[in-house]
């Protein structure tokens, strides 16, 4: 009936038509009921594509409704102006601030988790190649990432100028003797404090989410983002695609999950 009223041929069906239909059809129903109807519609779309061959594309994976997009805890990220505010507020007046500066660069430019930052060793960094090996990830496979020039300089400023001289090979050490590798809690604390001083209501993980958003914006595939983020399951990576509906649909359309 909806297609007839809007003179839409079944063979010309597009995701925009489905969005408009569901916005109208689902209005009186609860979230649970809407989810049920979306599931049935996905099944019908698969039937039209795989069995009847009426439509030219499988639209079922693209049919994702507000309960997915508007999660209670969606990935939150910092916008460009907020990133600028954060870095502009950072001070380099002592070892602790220089260390925090390098940590924030790693979290934002490489999307590293606080625990991954805390476990980086001097042996993981190649200043000559401009690369870092991240062996301690949720996945079993280590990853080698290119280090942006500014991030490499931030690491060098800490490692070569203010890092305590000890037998420890960990990159980041505590600021006072006896020197030892920092914990993930220390990384989180100092990054959080820097964000508060910049006037940002955010957490260290927002920098990681911003990294994912940047990868998405420059056209990285969902599989590339999965590897660079160190996700074990591609479903975790898909959460970041929900930040931008149109880019998510483009990624899902060109790549079968």
Q: Secondary structure elements and their pairing?
A:
Layout lengths: L1 H4 L9 H11 L5 H21 L14 H4 L10 H10 L5 H15 L4 H5 L6 E2 L4 E4 L8 E4 L2 H14 L21 H14 L6 H14 L4 H8 L4 H8 L3 H10 L3
Antiparallel strand pairs: 1-2, 2-3
Helix pairs in contact: 6-8, 6-9, 6-10, 11-12
What does this structure look like?
The chain is built from 13 helices and 3 strands; from the N terminus they run αααααααβββαααααα. Mean pLDDT is 82; it is low at 67-72. It is 54% helix and 4% strand. α6 runs antiparallel to α8 (149-162) and α6 (95-109) packs across α9. β2 and β3 (143-146) form a beta hairpin. The protein is elongated. It folds into 2 domains: 2-70, no CATH class; 80-235, Intergrase catalytic core (hpI Integrase, Chain A), CATH 1.10.443. The chain has helices at 2-5, 15-25, 31-51, 66-69, 80-89, 95-109, 114-118, 149-162, 184-197, 204-217, 222-229, 234-241, 245-254, and strands at 125-126, 131-134, 143-146. The chain starts with a helix and ends with a helix. With 257 residues, the chain is mainly α. It has a 3-stranded antiparallel β-sheet, with no helix packed on it.
